[in-house]
Specification:
Blueprint: E1 7-12, H1 22-36, E2 44-47, E3 51-55, H2 61-68, E4 74-83, H3 87-101, E5 107-114, H4 123-137, E6 142-143, E7 150-157, E8 160-164, E9 168-169, E10 181-185, H5 191-201, E11 205-212, H6 219-232, E12 239-245, H7 247-256, H8 262-280, E13 285-287, H9 300-307, E14 314-315, H10 323-332, H11 336-339, H12 346-349, H13 361-368, H14 373-382, E15 385-389, H15 392-406
Parallel strand pairs: 5-6, 5-7, 10-11, 10-13, 11-12, 13-14
Antiparallel strand pairs: 1-3, 1-4, 2-3, 4-8, 4-9, 7-8, 12-15
């Protein structure tokens, strides 16, 4: 008998608490799963109130399992084997599966569920029948009702019987998009991708806003930001990447403002532009990777001076974390090695030697009065470049790198 997986059964996490909104959350999760598995067109996704079923139609389960681990909104999932809904067939399948996974010391338990109430045996009878079949197939094996090593689930449905023994932990959280849309200020460093990841975990659909100042910033720095965005796509399927031309603004600030206030004014311009993009694209919040006290622009006094330009909520998921905590998450989501590549972004290149850590608002207003704030922002917004980033681009980038190494 062929014991290859035929389905993956997905269990929801926090969605069970969503009451009347439950259906919309489940539908969004289903769309996110389809997006994450877009390269596997043969898979059929069916979502109902209690569970989601992924019919593999011959696809290899291993890569699907790895992708599902990253989709927010999934509590856990179980790869399953479908067999005919005949008692003798089910008994044989259970015996063969147990012989395949039993290594000689594990305890086991049968957990049967009868969704099809017309089946010949009820759940309790199935537990006894299938448990006895395991004892016949593997003499000496021990049953254990609480916390067994192997919990073999057998579910009888209308279209067949499903066997599973693995329960794989999902990413938890909420389906991306159920909490609305936010603009992620993505620099290219360690912190902002982690902030984007944590925002997505709470259901926020992110769009990445990256400021580029050519020729001061390089193509490699821009590509690095796009590659970081690729690392975030498995959690949702695709992300819009918005490149903002920022050269004119930084040159004007450098020419017209004392060094100590370069960073404060730069960040105020960035926030104004990000907020304008948010309004254009119907976002609700701005998200950034600020961590309190980490650099000069992230003191409380600097945050107050920078935040003054907008009343839009600013979400700072890593604000209370220290650097080691942020690095740990960056390593977990595989953005750390990319983030430390030595391609400087516009904030690094134009960083003053002694930035103000306690900027005075009256001086900020005085220096900004020297600049054509509205004109510069309008010209920057007119030059936006928007690109859709998908998980497939990771494979493409890897292939290009390998090809380049051969040349």
């Amino acid at each position: 008998m062929n014991l290859n997986y035929t389905e993956i059964m997905v269990r929801y996490g926090e969605l069970s608490t969503k009451g009347k909104n439950r259906r919309s959350f489940i539908m969004r999760l289903a769309e996110n799963v389809k997006g994450a598995l877009a390269a596997h067109s043969e898979i059929i996704v069916r979502a109902d109130r209690d569970r989601m079923h992924l019919y593999l139609n011959g696809a290899d389960a291993a890569p699907i399992i790895e992708k599902l681990k990253k989709v927010f909104g999934i509590q856990n999932f179980s790869p399953s084997i479908r067999v005919e809904k005949e008692l003798d067939v089910i008994i044989t399948a259970v015996q063969e599966l147990m012989k395949e996974i039993y290594t000689g010391s594990e305890t086991f338990k049968i957990t049967a569920k009868r969704s099809d109430h017309g089946f010949v045996q009820n759940s309790d009878e199935l537990n006894q029948t299938l448990g006895a079949a395991v004892f016949r197939a593997i003499p000496g094996i021990k049953a254990q009702m609480k916390k067994p090593d192997i919990n073999l689930r057998v579910e009888i449905r209308e279209n067949g019987a499903y066997l599973s023994y693995e329960t794989i932990q999902g990413a938890g959280g909420l389906p991306v998009g159920t909490s609305g849309r936010g603009m992620l200020m993505l620099s290219g460093g360690i912190d902002s991708p982690v902030a984007g990841y944590l925002a997505m975990k709470r259901g926020v659909e992110i769009e990445a806003v990256h400021f580029a100042s050519p020729p001061y910033t390089s193509e490699q720095a821009l590509q690095k930001a796009k590659d970081l965005t690729v690392k975030l796509t498995p959690y949702v399927g695709k992300i819009q990447f918005i490149e903002v031309p920022f050269t004119e603004i930084q040159e004007e600030i450098k020419r017209s403002v004392p060094q100590g206030y370069w960073m404060t004014l730069t960040r105020r311009f960035m926030l104004r532009i990000t907020d304008a993009i948010r309004e254009q694209r119907r976002g609700l919040v701005v998200i950034n990777g600020e961590s309190l006290g980490q650099v000069a622009s992230q003191t409380l006094q600097s945050m107050v001076a920078i935040n003054e330009v907008t009343s839009t909520p600013i979400i700072r998921p890593v604000v209370t974390m220290d650097k080691l905590e942020i690095i740990e998450i960056a390593q977990e989501i595989d953005t750390f090695q990319l983030a430390i590549q030595p391609f400087e972004d516009c904030c690094t290149i134009f960083a003053p030697p002694q930035p103000k850590t306690r900027p005075k608002l009256e001086k900020v207003h005085y220096y900004e009065a020297r600049l054509d704030v509205e004109g510069m922002i309008a010209r920057s917004l007119a030059g936006l470049k928007i690109e859709e980033i998908s998980p497939d681009q990771a494979a493409a980038s890897q292939a290009e790198a390998e090809f380049a190494d051969l040349l």
